[in-house]
Amino acid sequence: xxxxxxVGQFWTFGFTVLRGCLSENExxxxxxxxxxxxxxxxxxxxxxxxxxxxxxxxxxxxxxxADLIEHPGVMEAMRDIWGTECLYIAGSDMWANRDHTPWHTxxxxxxxxxxxxxxxxxxxxxxxxxxxxLIPGSHxxxxxAALFRSCGYWDRGRPRLRLDPDAIPGALSxxxxxxxxxxxxxxxxxxxFKRKDGQPRxxxxxxxxxxxxxxxxxxxxxxxxxxxxxxxxxxxxxxKEMMEKGSPRREKMAARLEELGVEKxxxx
Length: 268
Fold this sequence. Notes:
It is a single chain. The protein is of the alpha+beta class. The protein has one domain: Jelly Rolls (Sandwich). The chain is built from eight helices and twelve strands. The chain has helices at about 5-15, 25-40, 65, 70-80, 140-150, 215-230, 240-245, 250-260; strands spanning about 15-20, 55, 85-95, 100-105, 115-120, 130-135, 150-155, 160, 170-175, 180-185, 190, 200-210. The strands form three sheets. Strands 1-10-5-12-3-2 form a six-stranded antiparallel beta sheet. Strands 4-11-6-9 form a four-stranded antiparallel beta sheet, with no helix packed on it. A two-stranded antiparallel ribbon has the order 7-8. The longest helix has 15 residues, at about 25-40. The N and C termini lie far apart (about 35 Å).
């Protein structure tokens, strides 16, 4: 359970680290599954030609990954912050990343509605060794928009910052250990760079949005966001196998999406 101070820090700075959220057995299971699956994942050379591999979506590939969706520690932390359930929005990506990922924000700079991500790292991450870098507080729409207007540019339709990565005031490298999960508002401006030891960044990201309840604008944003994730490779939020093997929490989450009018929640 998060303290009032930790909840306040999330709202102020846009992230929190759930230390030791995963057990040693859970980490071992994820490392084994990641090693087995990532070897056959497509090469992703968006940033450079370094042999980065990425699989999206990935949660349906192995039960070890699917179990992360409604992990009790993550669900509890999100309820502490938002005072309501948060819903899986069918966005997930798994990496063995050998490239620099430049400073960027997900979506339009200055957007109002929040989406959340969990970041799960299978190795120790620190400055110089692949950590998630954040500009704390840059999830606030006015701050985000000001950063982009003053220092930003578009790169193939994606927002970037034209700043020296080592000279951004207040930028923070989030140190993590296997078992930690970073819960963060992905409106934050963020980056990650190559590890100095030449090893890939072994990471997994899963996306959520707070239950919109009676907020009609947030409801429309939720429906639109899920709709953008539905593709030929992911024809629904949850596959039949995921629902058959899921816990009651997964059924509850899927049923709530359907109640909110989200289409293609589960495979028929």
